């Protein structure tokens, strides 16, 4: 199985990313780290522990990371994920603990102890990953690739041209995209092909398990905010797409391209400038996800939820 570290800001779709990453037999989830994004760090960390508790994931260390972006003020996405960051279900007190180490310390320890290079899967702002690369540059050789959810080849969801994770911490995104490590970007152009349709909700409900019920409640809340704000009849479930790409690369078609991160723009800070036609003179530095096999993706996601019983 491919060893992975998942870096999240749960977040409804991050919650599903956790469930998929732990359940898929082709993945070996070594650690979960949290970052401020959809909500404050404390709320996102509590939410990661909540999801692990509901799913019975008690053998994966969870560590808290950065509480704010590298240089900017934190902006959250309460409009999409609610005040808790994971509005919808009623959660009890989590029994899964948080590790004593910080996110970057846990990542460093896991990376240096593991016998083969590890894939990092960030599905929030890239603050923790940038801090890891800066603080412990020696771990680079233990990272096989970075497969992230963020950015877009087209229009944005936070400003007209920028996606949320990139907008929150453009400086961190710049560090990651210029790191020289293999980077795969699963942006909005592909994650908007992963829609939690009514049919998906029916299939989840039919599983009949407590975890499936929690997922339905999560997706129902999340669907309401997407309906109200974007007029979408089914919400895009962004973050598990990055996980799915690692589990089964054939599900997500990618093309190589130069990707630059805009940091100056008055209206465009955090834009992923995807240079398909080589206008900038920069070489390829990322694989850009273009198409998702949506049906097998949902089979994967639903089977993952089912597997917890
Ligand atoms: C990204 O922003 C967050 O709200 C989601 O969790 C996802 O990671 C989509 O733009
Ligand atoms: Ca996220």
3D architecture notes:
The chain has 309 residues and is an alpha/beta fold. It has helices at 12-23, 41-55, 78-81, 103-113, 127-135, 164-168, 170-177, 188-191, 198-207, 210-230, 239-247, 294-307, and strands at residues 2-8, 27-34, 62-64, 118-122, 143-149, 183-186, 252-257, 259-261, 272-274, 286-292. The protein has an 8-stranded mixed sheet, sandwiched between helices. It has a two-stranded antiparallel ribbon with strand order 8-9. Strand 1, helix 1 (12-23) and strand 2 form a beta-alpha-beta unit. Helix 4 (103-113) packs across helix 5 (127-135). It is globular, with a radius of gyration of 18 Å. The two termini are 22 Å apart. Bound molecules: beta-D-ribofuranose and calcium ion. Calcium ion binds next to helix 1.
């Amino acid at each position: 199985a491919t060893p992975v570290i998942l870096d999240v800001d749960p977040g409804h779709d991050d919650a599903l990313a956790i469930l998929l990453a732990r359940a898929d037999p082709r993945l070996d989830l070594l650690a979960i780290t949290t970052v401020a994004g959809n909500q404050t760090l404390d709320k996102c960390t509590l939410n990661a522990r909540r999801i692990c508790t509901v799913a019975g994931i008690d053998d994966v260390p969870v560590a808290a990371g950065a509480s704010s972006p590298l240089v900017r003020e934190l902006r959250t996405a309460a409009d999409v994920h609610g005040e808790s960051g994971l509005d919808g279900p009623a959660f009890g007190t989590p029994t899964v603990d948080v590790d004593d180490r910080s996110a970057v310390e846990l990542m460093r320890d896991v990376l240096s102890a593991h016998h083969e290079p590890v894939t990092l899967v960030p599905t929030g702002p890239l603050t923790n990953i940038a801090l890891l690369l800066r603080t412990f540059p020696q771990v680079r050789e233990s990272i096989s690739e970075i497969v992230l959810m963020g950015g877009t080849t087209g229009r944005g969801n936070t400003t007209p041209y920028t996606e949320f994770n990139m907008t929150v911490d453009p400086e961190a995104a710049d560090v990651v995209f210029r790191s020289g490590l293999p980077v795969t970007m699963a942006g909005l152009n592909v994650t908007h092909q992963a829609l939690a349709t009514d049919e998906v909700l029916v299939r989840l409900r039919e599983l009949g398990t407590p975890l499936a019920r929690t997922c339905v409640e999560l997706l129902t809340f999340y669907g309401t905010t997407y309906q109200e704000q974007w007029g979408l009849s089914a919400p895009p479930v962004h973050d598990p797409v990055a996980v799915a790409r690692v589990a089964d690369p054939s599900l997500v078609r990618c093309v190589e391209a130069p990707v630059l991160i805009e940091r100056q723009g008055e209206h465009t800070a955090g834009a992923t400038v995807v240079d398909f036609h080589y206008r900038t003179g920069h070489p390829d530095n990322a694989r850009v996800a273009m198409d998702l096999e949506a049906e097998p993706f949902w089979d994967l996601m639903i089977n993952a939820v089912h597997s917890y019983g």
